[in-house]
Each structure stands twice: as C-alpha cells, then as structure tokens.
C-alpha cells in the first residue's frame, strides 16, 4: 500500500474566505434567502464548480441573530436544473495500484447514477441546533419545490451558540448538502458580551469544514465537477480534499493575537481529529475550547491530548493564541482521523505522518495560519464561562423515562450494508421471540425491537419539561454521531460493552444480540467523556463497543421531530426516527 499520494492541488494557496454576514437585527429580523444554482471555485487551480447554495454561495451567508429577537426567514426555492453533483458507486473499492478509489478524483469507472442526475431541486431547510417550533423545523418530507417558498419563524429564545442551517430532504440530504446547501448561523447574547469574547472580523472567524471530490477530464485533469463517490465496500463518501469555508486547504493570515474560531464539521461522513502543528510539533496548548454545540461550556477546556475530534455536525468554539509568534511563523491544522472513524487513538506527536490512503486519509491538510506583523494582543481567558446549566442530579433523573436505541448494521445481498436503528422496549421473561439482552453484573434486561424504519409507527412521546435518559447501544464497528432535534442534551456516560450477534441476528424487528457491560478484550478505546464534551450538545459520538447515555429534556415546543445519525449517508439510508413531544396534560388522552 502506498503511504503517500501526490496532491493534485497546491495546499495553502488560496486565502480563507469568510462567508458574507447577514445580521438579522439590521433587517429588523426579516430575512429573505434565495436558494439558487450557482458557480463556485473550490481552489484557484480548479475550474468553477456548479453548485446549489443559499444565496447561490458556498457556504451560504452566515446569519447572525440576537437571543430573544425572533428572526423570520423566507426561504425562496429558486433552484433550476438538476442536481449539480455526479453520484456514482465505483465498481471496485481499490484501483489497480491498491489505492482506495475514494482517495482519488474522477469516477473510477463508476456509472453516473441516473436517478440522482434527474433530481430537481426540491428542498427543505433545517436549522440544526435551533429551538424551533415543529412547523419550522424542516421535517424531511415537507418539501418545497422550485418556484415555491417557505416562511419559517425562528424564536431565537435560546442561548448564544454557533448553529447551522442545511438541507434535510428525505433520502437525498447527502447529495443536497454536498451540492452546497449549508450555512452557519450565530446566536449572540449578553453573557458572551460580558466575557468580552471576540465578535465579528477580524478576530472571530467561522470555519466550516467539508470534504469534497471532483471529476477528471479525458486528459486526466481535474474538472470542477462535484463528485459523490462511494464504493462496494464503503457506503459513505469520504472525499480526499478538505475545504474550509468552500476553499480546499486555505491559508489565513493572522495577527499576533488571540483569535476566536467557530468550527463546524459540515462533512457528510468524515470525522476530523484536528491537531495544530508548528515546526512539525503539535501545539495544542495554544487552543482553549470555550464552547460546544449549544454554546459556552461552564469552564474553559483543554483539547484532548490526541486533538479535537469533531464528527459530522459537531461544533467547537475555540480561542487560539498566536500572540507570541514572530511574523512569518506558520502553523498548520491537520486531521489525523482515518475513515470510517471508529474512535481509535492516534497520538498528536505523530500527526506529521497521519497520511493513510489505505484508511481514506490521503491528505491530512486542513488549513494553515501565517502570522503577519501587527499589534500584539493577547486576551485573558475567563475562568468561568456559563452559569446557566448543570448536569441534572441523580435525583432529577431517578424517575426519568429511559429509552433504548440499538445502532445496527444490516448485511444486504448485492448492495452495501444498511446502517439503521432499532428502538427497543423491555419485555418480560415470557417473551419467546428474538430479543436483545443487556447484562450489567447480576442483572439482565430483555428487550424486543418496537421500530426499525423511519416510517414505522412512532414510539417516543417525550413529555415537555421532563428529563429523559436515552441509552444508545452501538452494535457496529464505527462511531455514529447521533443528533437529536429540538432541545440540547448532556452526555451522562460512555460505558464499554462486549456483545454477540448470531448469524442473521440483525433483521428488521427480529433482532437478536447479547450485550454485556464489560470491556471487550480487543477494545482499545477510552470510552471517556472529554472535558470539551461536558456542555450542552445536540450531536454525540457513539463509539464502537459502547453504550452512550444522554439526559435530554424537551422544554418548549410540542410536535413531531426527528433524531438520526448525522453521517448523511446513514441518515438517508434509514438511520433516522421520529419522536413527538407532548404537553403533560395531553398524555391521558393519547390512545
Ligand atoms: Cu451512522
């Protein structure tokens, strides 16, 4: 296996673009965003790519809102033509030289998917991380066609955070987001301003990270054509080129100052583990994490020693100190996470040698920072950040409803495996059919599957105002970022498990598995909750050989929402389920 692949594009050649800011207060909270086909250049040496974008741009404009000031957006679908992405499954997983086909540009002999080529621009917009009434949450089946529009009201009655908006169409979210339909949304509030955090340019910079692949012409030159390529063994797309704010491997000139980076992994499937290198050595001490998915942590957190892990849809609010660096100093942000990500450790000290085409990480580059002359401004980091939340006490959770979800992989003949979920309910000893058993010391709990597919009947009816504990059991070999719409949650625990699944044990509802709360002998994961995860989250990584428990409380809005894996290829292949939040007074009347 080749250890390195020559990059067909020069790294760190383009300046990092910053998406246009759309400040809601300047428009009296009334925004109108056209959704359009456009052209976008992902790298100075690439021809323009046809894209779909909010306002025709990739990424869309960054919408900035104030807590407590509602924003209305008219999302106007002006898409014309068909999906500007060539979708293909290559006939083989590796090329003649043994390199995974997903690491190289072009179609690798795969036929263009004709159904994808025929997709017209039906869309629906989801504000990920938004505390939003159900009619405006972007239900995956409530589409608006080209020429139609949707008027969505966002109360913005939630704490300051970096959230984001993106397409959420049933079955094709992976193509629509890949075509460009994603943008950032920042909510600001008084607490952040009290802390004197950088706000706006030049010291607050959003970084939206997404991997992309492109076509090749007959002479082997890169075209700008966006290509979504999978292979017979890997159903997720792991494109080789990392774009930040729409540029492949960009460069940002920084003053010798403290910067605030608002980071989002907006990739379809790839998880990043980010390491900052200076002269070949990791310098993670320059980075302090102050916020996560739903805003400020209680106290600043160091990054985990291996680097900052962000799965699809996870966010990080970072302060990075460049103040001691001489002009001309260069620091490089690298990714050390191979794909598909399974949580396996990789020491930051080895980041220089993280390239691994065999594990679909041909180019670890993400971006580079170059220090330019300027006033030295170093910002003290407050010791206390948020004071408005705490982990629910054991008392508060004692009577909480518990819900159990198994993440499973179903093998299918002649097509890639399907990653789905099973909602499990406790069953009595008299239940004789297939069951999932979970053994914790002396106690064994038996479950049967109550739902397997998105369109199966709803089984989750959380009551507003009441804490619930959701238990996610991972019976697959990969890490899944599970996203719950509406209110944020907190991670309670990650516990190692070993399990056995008999042959053909994963059927629709006839699912059989024996889970034991013990470490598997081959398991090298820490199953820790990192300091930077001890905040308000809306997406949690559930690692292999692990049960992850979260505490969630829906507070404000009743209605039909979704939870799902945020690997878009999984979400589109049915790793998504509904839930309905209800006011307590209505529960006695539910049939
Ligand atoms: Cu998944």
What would your notes on this structure say?
This protein is mainly beta. A 9-stranded mixed β-sheet has the order 32-36-30-26-27-29-28-34-33, with no helix packed on it. It has a 7-stranded mixed β-sheet with strand order 15-14-11-17-23-20-21, with no helix packed on it. Strands 16, 18, 19, 22, 24 and 25 form a 6-stranded mixed β-sheet that branches. Strand 12 and strand 13 form a beta hairpin. The protein is globular. The site of copper (II) ion has 6 residues, from loops.
Main attributes?
591 residues, mainly beta, nine-stranded mixed sheet, seven-stranded mixed sheet, 5 helices, globular, binds copper (II) ion
What fraction of the residues are assigned to beta strands by DSSP? 35-45%
- Strand count: 38
**Which strand order do you get reading across the main beta sheet?**
32-36-30-26-27-29-28-34-33
What is the straight-line distance between the termini? 60 Å
**Ligand roster:** copper (II) ion
SSE inventory with pairings:
Layout: E1 21-23, E2 30-40, E3 49-54, E4 62-66, E5 71-77, E6 85-89, H1 114-117, E7 125-128, E8 149-154, E9 161-167, H2 173-178, E10 182-188, H3 190-194, E11 204-212, E12 214-216, E13 222-230, E14 241-244, E15 247-248, E16 251-254, E17 258-265, E18 272-278, E19 281-282, E20 287-292, E21 295-302, E22 308-310, E23 315-321, E24 330-335, E25 365-371, H4 394-398, E26 402-410, E27 418-426, E28 436-440, E29 443-451, E30 467-474, E31 480-484, E32 489-496, E33 498-500, E34 513-516, E35 539-542, E36 546-553, E37 559-565, H5 568-572, E38 576-581
Residues 419, 480, 565, 567, 570, 575 line the site of copper (II) ion (CU).
């Amino acid at each position: 296996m080749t250890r390195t692949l020559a990059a067909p594009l020069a790294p760190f050649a383009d300046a990092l673009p910053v998406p246009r800011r759309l400040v809601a207060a300047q428009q009296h909270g009334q925004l109108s965003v056209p959704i359009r086909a456009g052209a976008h250049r992902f790298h100075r040496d690439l021809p323009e790519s046809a894209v779909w974008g909010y306002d025709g741009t990739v990424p869309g404009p960054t919408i900035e809102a104030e807590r407590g000031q509602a924003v209305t957006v008219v999302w106007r679908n002006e898409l014309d033509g068909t999906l500007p992405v060539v979708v293909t499954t290559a006939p083989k997983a590796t090329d003649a030289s043994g390199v995974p086909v997903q690491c190289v540009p072009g179609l690798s002999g795969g036929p263009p998917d004709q159904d994808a080529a025929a997709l017209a621009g039906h869309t629906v917009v989801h504000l990920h991380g938004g505390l939003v009434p159900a009619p405006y949450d972007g239900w995956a089946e409530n589409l608006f066609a080209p020429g139609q529009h949707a008027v969505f009201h966002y109360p913005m009655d939630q704490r300051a955070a970096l959230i984001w908006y993106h397409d959420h169409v049933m079955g094709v979210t992976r193509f629509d987001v890949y075509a460009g339909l994603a943008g950032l949304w920042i909510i600001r509030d008084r607490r952040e301003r009290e802390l004197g955090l950088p706000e706006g340019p030049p010291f607050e910079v959003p970084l939206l990270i997404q991997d992309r692949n492109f076509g090749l012409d007959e002479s082997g030159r890169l075209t700008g054509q966006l290509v979504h390529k999978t292979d017979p063994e890997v159903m997720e797309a792991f494109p080789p080129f990392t774009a930040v704010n729409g540029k492949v491997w960009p460069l940002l000139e920084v003053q010798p100052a403290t910067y605030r980076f608002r980071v989002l992994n907006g990739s379809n499937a790839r998880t990043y583990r980010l390491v900052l290198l200076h002269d070949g050595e990791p310098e993670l001490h320059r980075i302090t994490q102050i916020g996560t998915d739903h805003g400020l942590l209680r106290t600043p957190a160091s990054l985990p020693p291996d680097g900052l892990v962000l799965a699809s849809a996870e966010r990080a609010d970072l302060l990075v100190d460049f103040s001691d660096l001489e002009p001309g100093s260069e620091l490089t942000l690298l990714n050390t996470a191979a794909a598909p990500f399974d949580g396996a450790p990789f020491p930051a000290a080895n980041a220089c040698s993280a390239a691994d085409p065999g594990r679909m990480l041909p180019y670890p580059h993400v971006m580079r920072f170059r220090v330019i002359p300027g006033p030295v401004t170093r910002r003290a980091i407050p010791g206390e950040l948020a004071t408005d939340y705490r982990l629910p006490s054991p008392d508060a959770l004692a009577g909480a409803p518990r819900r159990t979800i198994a993440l499973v992989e179903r093998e299918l003949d002649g097509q890639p495996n399907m990653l789905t979920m099973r909602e499990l309910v406790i069953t009595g000893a008299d239940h004789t059919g297939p069951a999932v058993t979970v053994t914790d010391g002396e106690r064994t709990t038996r479950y049967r599957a109550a739902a397997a597919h998105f369109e199966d009947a709803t089984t989750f009816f959380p009551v507003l105002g009441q804490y619930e504990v959701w238990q996610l059991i991972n019976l697959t070999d990969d890490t899944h970022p599970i996203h719950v719409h509406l209110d944020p949650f907190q991670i309670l625990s990650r516990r190692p498990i070993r399990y056995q699944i008999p042959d053909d044990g994963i059927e629709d509802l006839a699912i059989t598995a024996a889970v034991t709360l013990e470490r598997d002998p081959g398991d090298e994961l820490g199953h820790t909750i990192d300091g930077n995860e001890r905040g308000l989250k809306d997406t949690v990584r559930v690692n292999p050989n692990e049960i992850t428990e979260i505490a969630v409380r829906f507070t404000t809005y009743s209605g039909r929402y979704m939870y799902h894996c945020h690997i878009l290829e999984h979400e589109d292949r049915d790793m998504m389920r509904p839930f309905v939040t209800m006011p307590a007074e209505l529960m006695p009347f539910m049939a």
